[in-house]
Design brief:
Number of helices: 5
Number of domains: 1
Oligomer: single chain
Strand order of the largest sheet: 1-2-3-4-5-7-6
Shape: globular
Structural class: alpha+beta
Helix content: 25-40%
Low-confidence stretches: none
Mean pLDDT: 97
CATH superfamily: Gcn5-related N-acetyltransferase (GNAT)
Distance between the termini: 19 Å
Largest sheet: 7 strands, mixed
Radius of gyration: 15 Å
Order of helices and strands: EHHHEEEHEHEE
Length: 163
């Protein structure tokens, strides 16, 4: 069973390691275009950990770190948050861990944090991720067109009780 815990300082180097020898497109695919600069560094991740309305979580399968995911724009008054910067290690790919991580994040968000609505954005070309999100109950709510059609994306959302 996958477990999530808040990111710790030593986790930054794990994420940087997962990005070693990867290109800019890889970084932008999982992290978007605005937050991190290529090449990814521990300092960038540490700075992101200090954003008050965000929480970065590390995912573990037993003792093995298998991914990370961020809840951003957490608003306890509106009971909403945005899921972003979802990354699986290469070794975790194809093992169903993405769905497990997402389901645990949904459970934590709705049951422990009292949130009622989650959103996320996904690039239209990322069919595997879209299927994973749909399997967990997310529905497409918006289409976003980029100057470069390769980066067109969807906003997907999930409301409490609909998962």
């Amino acid at each position: 069973m996958v477990q999530l815990r808040p990111m710790q300082t030593e986790d930054c180097q794990v994420i940087v390691g997962w990005n070693a020898e990867k290109d800019l497109v890889y970084l932008q695919q999982w992290a978007g275009k605005q937050v991190y600069q290529y090449p990814l560094t521990e300092e960038q991740i540490k700075a992101r950990c200090n954003v008050p309305s965000s929480q970065i979580l590390m995912a573990f399968d037993g003792k093995e770190a298998v991914g990370s995911v961020e809840l951003d724009h957490i608003d306890l008054r509106l009971k909403t948050a945005h899921i972003c910067r979802f990354l699986l290690s290469d070794q975790a790919q194809g093992r169903g861990l993405g769905s497990q991580i997402l389901k645990e994040l949904i459970r934590m968000s709705f049951e422990e944090m009292g949130l009622e609505r989650l959103t996320l954005r996904v690039y239209c070309f990322n069919i595997k991720a879209i299927r994973c999100y749909e399997k967990c109950g997310f529905l497409v709510s918006e289409f976003h067109q980029d100057k470069n059609p390769y980066w067109n994306s969807f906003t997907m959302e999930l409301r409490k009780g609909k998962q």
